[in-house]
Design brief:
extracellular matrix structural constituent conferring tensile strength, repeat, 36 helices, elongated, VWF_A, vWFA_dom_sf, 6-stranded mixed sheet, extracellular matrix
């Protein structure tokens, strides 16, 4: 069947439509209607009015579909110039505005005009997107009083949620304008129309559309058999709650749903618009009855059918969403996933239960113990009325980050910048935990002054802001700073509450143009849902600022930084009022990859297919799809597979998501970049067991390096899924396809693991044996040949990992074909220098098969029985410069000093009495190859210090210990880097790996460490923070293949949170962890963190730390870290044709179902 049939007809949901998860998401923009007084009295002022409209339109985003515009002129009656859906480009709108002609007429009937707008312009047929939650704005410009009444039509527009701004001249009635707007500050007065430009800025500020000051409240009532007698009390409780709401003025909306085995909507959020209608409906409620009590199903129903724009929810407009659950029993089905889904939507849930309810279940549903309320009986509900009102009145929160240009160009203006930030902070609600603040300064690179979770009081924030010192530096890399914010500041570990739906605001103040590109990082912040306001001076690029904000009206300009107070009010209004589309966070998988979704489309998955499709959508939305980024393909199967699109069909995430809504996959022709080394991931979603054997094709895919992640339902075979998956841990399970969102985070975690494994492949070697074939080695040559044979036996040549070359020399060198057929060369004198030069020029080259340009280690094993006749100095030095690791084995006839000069490392020069003794150094040689090749050029050492209340007295000893460790490191020449992080409830970075470049700076910073304090001790969160924010390139961490990553944890207690997953994640990054604990620590926990019992050390007290100083130094110096797990062996190479057969074998073996 066709793709359309598959995605829309065959697998539509039970109600006959294909669910679109993005249908509730409105465009980020507004619908703006200009209502112009065209009566006789405005004839002379009309050209100015027209120019004013033009300038307003210039600030709107019409071309990208965000904003829509309509113009209506009126006198005794209204006349539409054009509707909201008449034009789609700014040029068309402006051309039409320029062509406006004065209407004329009298009297001035403003009431009739407002009524006309309600009935004919603010409607879907006229292009209004109000039903989708897009803000509606009306700008009225008038020069006189209305002849008819404006009360009723003005009220009607308010109920529609229209934001009205009225501008009047001296001939207008100020009270009338205030009645029309409903908000005195939105009624603006000018002496004459020629003064309209003076209110342009004020108008822009007001137009930062303010969400309604209200809430959407849904009551979910237990209507099962067990609540029959208590139902009247429940109904009375709802009535009293509704009495406290502001329904009539459109602020609050109400819905009531009753449930037992299934839910039944009494009325939706947009069913009624007056309190009287709502109360009448509530009074008429009849008990539903039924069993069992499926609270999980009811919560899921609310998510999909009630908290949606089509049902009246204003969640896209950031209107608070409140659910009040009243129940008298335990749920028969699971509430975990649907409760989590509502939290991700940002719904505040309050659960009230009786003695028959399960308190833990109620707390799980609310996610906040204080929101789970208990009463003995429903007749006691009035007792919690006040408590409920208190919880519901919690205002909106926000996380605000200031990004300040600290480059050389802003030195004189920096005090003004600092003052501006202070005044902005003064307007925020920090002390009660509503608002959080972070400040970052940048020039060439960014520097965090403090994170969102560093301070919890306004006083602390202000004190830190007052202490800001200008950073200095050049050039100005705004792009890098924005990228840094995305990766290190707008994150949960840094205090961002974005995953909880809290709006994220960035205020950028800059005095120049960015030296690097801002396009990609600005786009990434928009995708995170960050609202960006950019303020620039005359030295800034206005186009660049608009690109950063994505909304021209959020890009503000001042002549100098000292003029910042002029935009203070406008920024405050923007922060408070802007409609922010908050998207719940799902982990983003970083790293280029090819992903194929293989979907079970058999008869058994018909009901679950919409959920499967939605799941794919959500995963794709977190990918970075593009031509040189991530590639995606979807294959659906039942008896036979059908490809919906290949890896090279689409180049944007939007295209992929559109296709999902509506085999030759791992091959070059289909867009796979497997041969270029791009990780290949197959995500299998299946709802049953395979009819035939999956072992052989699954094994073949593993050998090709395809990472298979299997997700099955309760009807799948768990063992079969583990066989198919690349590793048993990559096999995930859900009860039903509708529970797929519950494994979204786990899938992202597995995918991240895959990227790490695929990005750092197993170590490869190019090994060259250089054998002394001069006359003096004739008798010892067979032993030499046997030694080479045994060495080759230890290498992985067959699977293409290792490559081998053998060269024999005396007076001159000769390259040999094979080892077993080696014949002694003979000749004299012994010119080792010439042989080494020959290797450099003819063997360690790409044309001879060397993979040195790809970073594969180059190893030379020299076996010689005498001194060189020529000089070895220059050619030995040349090989070192190429990065060749040389191991030299000589007999008693050799010169030990010469061998050491050749190797450059005394321990790599090995001596034997005679060639027959070569087997004695076999093990030594293997050890040198395995350790030296893994020896990094330096190390990145991070100290993680327990700064909780329990370590206050022992902290000086901890600090001294760190000092002594730093003393042993080589910081000044750039080999070693150091970072210190202190933690308790949350982590705080003292300095990053790239903060200091000298040992003196590091030691000075360590000496000034102050104890952090706080509780509980969340070691898991701290380890996760290190993974995401410290062991990263932006924080100074270097490639693990070249620089060893070490973590030294010192702790005095047990972790309050789980350490399993973050500890495992650090191991996957190749971090060597050494953990030191006191008697208050948990030794098993420390061993889990280190992954190696010998790296988990113990002292009685922190003052005993010097006892393990030497042990720690040895561990950091000597530990050999296996950075990357081994990839599967590749047997030969497959052509596209044979690979296609292999892939199809797996698909068919996986999918044939027994009928």
């Amino acid at each position: 069947c066709s793709r359309t049939a598959l995605l829309c007809n065959e697998h539509s949901d039970s109600e006959g439509y294909a669910h679109d998860t993005n249908s509730d998401r409105p465009p980020a923009g507004k619908d703006v209607v200009f209502l112009l007084d065209g009566s006789d009295t405005t004839r002379t002022g009309f050209p100015t009015m027209r120019d004013f409209v033009q300038k307003q339109v210039e600030t709107l985003s019409v071309d990208d579909g965000k904003d829509r515009v309509s113009v209506v002129q009126y006198s005794s009656d209204p006349a539409v110039q054009f509707y909201l859906n008449t034009y789609t480009t700014k040029r068309e709108v402006l051309d039409s505005v320029r062509g406006l002609r004065h209407k004329g007429g009298r009297p001035l009937n403003t009431g009739a005009a407002l009524r006309y707008l309600r009935d004919n312009v603010f409607t879907a047929s006229a292009g209004s997107r109000r039903p989708e939650g897009v803000p509606q704005v009306l700008i009225l410009i008038t020069g006189g009083r209305s002849f008819d009444s404006i009360d009723e039509p003005a009220s009607a527009l308010k109920q529609l949620g229209v934001l009205t701004i009225a501008i009047g001249t001296r001939g207008s009635d100020p009270r009338e304008l205030q009645t029309i707007t409903g908000e005195p500050s939105h009624a603006v007065s000018v002496s004459d129309f020629t003064d309209l430009p003076n209110v342009q800025e004020q108008l822009s500020s007001v137009m930062m559309v303010r969400p309604p000051a209200g809430k959407d409240v849904v009551f979910l009532l237990d209507g099962s058999d067990t609540t029959r007698t208590g139902f009247p009390a429940m109904r009375d409780f709802v009535q009293k709650q509704v009495e406290t709401l502001s329904v009539d003025d459109g602020k609050d909306r109400v819905s009531v749903v009753q449930y037992s085995s299934d839910p039944a909507v009494q009325f939706y959020l947009n069913t009624y618009t007056t309190k009287r209608e709502v109360l009448d409906s509530v009074r008429g409620l009849r008990h539903k009855g039924g069993r069992p009590l499926n609270t999980g199903a009811a919560l899921r129903y609310l998510r999909d059918n009630v908290f949606t724009a089509s049902a009246g929810s204003r969640q896209p407009e950031r209107v608070p969403q409140v659910l009040i659950l009243i129940t008298g029993g335990r749920s028969f089905d699971s509430i975990d996933e649907p409760a989590s889904a509502l939290k991700q939507l940002g719904v505040l849930t309050i659960a009230i239960g009786t003695r028959g309810s399960d308190p833990r279940e109620l707390q799980t549903i609310t996610g906040e113990p204080s929101h789970a309320v208990s009463v003995s009986d429903f007749t006691d509900l009035p007792n919690v009325q006040e408590q409920l009102s208190s919880v519901m009145s919690t205002p909106a929160l926000k996380d605000v980050v200031f990004l300040l240009d600290g480059s050389d160009a802003t030195r004189t203006g920096f005090p003004a910048m600092r003052d501006f930030v202070q005044k902005q902070v003064e307007t925020l609600s920090v002390d009660d935990g509503k608002d959080r603040v972070s400040v970052v300064q940048y020039s060439r690179d960014p520097a965090v002054q403090f994170y969102l979770n560093t301070y919890t009081t306004k006083r602390e924030v202000l004190d830190s802001v007052r202490g800001l010192r200008h950073k200095g530096g050049r050039p100005l890399n705004t792009g890098a700073a924005l990228r840094y914010l995305r990766d290190n500041v707008f994150t949960a570990s840094a205090g961002s509450r974005r995953p909880e739906g809290v709006p994220q605001v960035l205020i950028l103040i800059t005095g120049g143009r960015s030296f690097d590109s801002i396009d990609e990082p600005a786009s990434a912040l928009k995708q995170l849902g960050v609202l960006t306001i950019a303020i620039g001076t005359r030295g800034s690029d206005s186009t660049e600022l608009q690109t950063i904000t994505g909304e021209p009206s959020y890009a503000l300009s001042v002549s100098e930084l000292t003029d910042l107070p002029k935009v203070q009010q406008q920024v405050e209004s923007s922060v408070e009022a802007a409609v922010i589309e908050v998207t719940p966070e799902l982990p983003t998988v970083i790293g280029i990859k090819d992903i194929v979704f293989l979907l079970d489309g058999s008869d058994g998955t018909r009901n679950g297919f919409p959920a499967m499709r939605d799941f794919v959508e959500r995963v794709v939305e977190k990918l970075n799809v593009g031509e040189n980024k991530d590639h995606v393909s979807v294959v659906q199967y039942s008896r036979e597979p059908e490809v919906h699109f290949y890896l090279n069909t689409y180049t944007t995430g939007e295209d992929v998501v559109d296709s999902v809504r509506g085999d030759n996959v791992f091959t070059n022709s289909s867009g796979s970049r497997r041969l270029q080394g791009v990780p290949q991931i197959l995500i299998l979603l299946t709802g049953g067991r395979s009819f035939d054997n999956v072992d052989s094709p699954a094994s073949a895919l593993k050998q090709q390096g395809i990472y298979v992640i299997g997700i099955g339902t309760r009807t799948s075979d768990a063992r079969e899924l583990q066989k198919i998956s690349y590793e048993p841990s990559y096999a995930l399970s859900v009860s039903e396809f509708t529970d797929l969102p519950s494994v979204q985070e786990k899938l992202s975690s597995v995918m991240s693991t895959v990227i790490v494994r695929a990005t750092y492949p197993v170590e490869l070697f190019d090994v060259v044996f250089l054998l002394d074939g001069s006359d003096t080695t004739r008798t010892g040559f067979p032993a030499m040949r046997d030694f080479v044979q045994k060495q080759v036996e230890t290498l992985s040549v067959d699977d293409g990992k290792d490559r081998v070359s053998v060269v024999q020399y005396s007076r001159d060198p000769a390259v040999l074909d094979s080892v077993r057929g080696l014949r002694h060369k003979g000749g004299r004198p012994l010119n080792t220098g010439a042989a080494l030069r020959y290797l450099r020029d003819n063997v360690f080259t790409a044309s001879a098969g060397s993979r040195r340009p790809q970073g594969v280690p180059q190893v030379l094993i020299l076996i010689t029985g005498g001194r060189s006749f020529d000089s070895i100095d220059e050619p030995a030095s040349a090989l070192k410069q190429l990065g060749v690791l040389t191991i030299a084995i000589g007999t008693r006839g050799s010169d030990p000093r010469e061998l050491q000069t050749i190797t450059g490392e005394p321990s790599h020069a090995v001596s034997v009495s005679d060639f027959t003794d070569l087997p004695n150094v076999q093990e030594q040689l293997s050890s040198v190859m395995s350790t030296v090749l893994m020896r990094p050029a330096g190390k990145d050492v991070v100290f993680l210090l327990d700064g909780s209340d329990a370590t206050r007295t022992g902290f000086p000893a901890m600090r001294d210990f760190v000092q002594k460790q730093v003393e042993t490191l080589t910081v000044d020449d750039g080999k070693d880097r150091v970072s210190v992080v202190q933690y308790s409830r949350d982590p705080a970075v003292q300095f990053y790996l790239n903060t200091y470049t000298t040992k003196r700076e590091v030691l000075d910073s360590v000496r000034s460490l102050r104890h952090k304090g706080g509780r509980p001790l969340n070691t898991g969160a701290a380890l996760r923070y290190l993974r995401d924010n410290v062991f990263t390139a932006s924080a100074g961490s270097r490639r693990p293949k070249e620089f060893r990553r070490s973590l030294i944890l010192i702790t005095g207690g047990r972790s309050f949170d789980s350490i399993d997953e973050p500890a495992s994640a650090l191991k996957q990054l190749g971090v060597l962890t050494i953990a030191i604990g006191t008697r208050g620590s948990d030794s098993t926990e420390l061993q889990t963190i280190t992954g190696e019992p010998s790296y988990a050390l113990s002292v009685s007290e922190l003052t005993d730390l010097p006892k393990v100083q030497q042990q720690v130094e040895s561990s950091v110096e000597a530990a050999v870290i296996e950075v990357t797990p081994e990839l599967p062996t590749v047997i030969g190479m497959l052509s596209d044709t044979s690979y296609c057969w292999l892939q199809n074998s797996l698909i068919l073996a996986t999918v044939r179902k027994s009928k």
